[in-house]
Design goal:
This protein is of the alpha/beta class and 180 residues long. The protein has one domain: 3-Layer(aba) Sandwich (Rossmann fold), CATH 3.40.50. Helix 1 packs across helix 7. The longest helix is centred in the last third of the chain and has 17 residues. The two termini are 16 Å apart. The structure holds guanosine-5'-monophosphate.
């Protein structure tokens, strides 16, 4: 059985970029594709970034016990399908999950061998600026995100490793040191 790496860090912290750069250099690692009920952002593709579904469809999957873990975040649902994780690991691929803090801690309870890595922003102010710079959300949504980001940073003390994303290059190096 191959390793399961779980990476968390609030949205806007740039973890997507760090993971993408890592994957470019290490194609033997696969990134898990989650299910979500949130609306597609520009440039996102079905089956690439997420499997987009309605709340009804999501609820059916919850009832059928199809998720390894799931969470509500800013009014939307996000979940990792058990079948996706099992298939990838059985294929002999290393798998990276990019999920929220609560989800990561839930995975650790079910799969204690999973490595939990948290990506921190250089500062909270910088994270807020990055989030606003994206111009994709309303002020209310941004305030909601900022509140949950504070909670996530608090929860990161339960993670196995923490990385500070000052530059993408540095963060990838730290990630390589931990994973390889
Ligand atoms: P975004 O809407 O910015 O794509 O993601 C919002 C948050 O949901 C991020 O913190 C992201 O890591 C998290 N997330 C994405 N997929 C999953 C998942 O399958 N499970 C959980 N628990 N969180 C997820």
């Amino acid at each position: 059985m191959k390793r399961l790496i779980v990476i968390s860090g609030s949205s806007g912290v740039g973890k997507g970029t760090v993971i993408k750069e890592f994957l470019k250099k290490h194609p033997d690692f696969k990134l898990s594709i989650s299910c979500t009920t949130r609306t597609k952002r520009e440039g996102e593709e079905e089956g690439v970034n997420y499997f987009f579904m309605s709340k009804d469809e999501f609820e059916k999957c919850v009832q059928n016990n199809e998720f390894l873990e799931w969470a509500e975040f800013s009014g939307n649902f996000y979940g990792t399908k058990k079948s996706f994780v099992e298939k990838t690991l059985q294929n002999g691929d290393e798998l990276i999950l990019e999920i929220d803090t609560k989800g990561a801690l839930n995975v650790k309870k079910i799969m204690p061998d999973a490595n939990l890595i948290f990506i921190l922003p250089p500062s909270f102010e910088e994270l807020e600026a990055r989030l606003r710079g994206r111009h994709t959300e309303t002020e209310e949504a941004i305030q909601k995100r900022l509140a949950s980001i504070k909670l996530e940073i608090e929860n990161s003390k339960f993670f196995d490793f923490r990385i500070i994303n000052d530059t993408v290059e540095n963060a990838v190096k730290q990630l390589e040191n931990i994973i390889l």
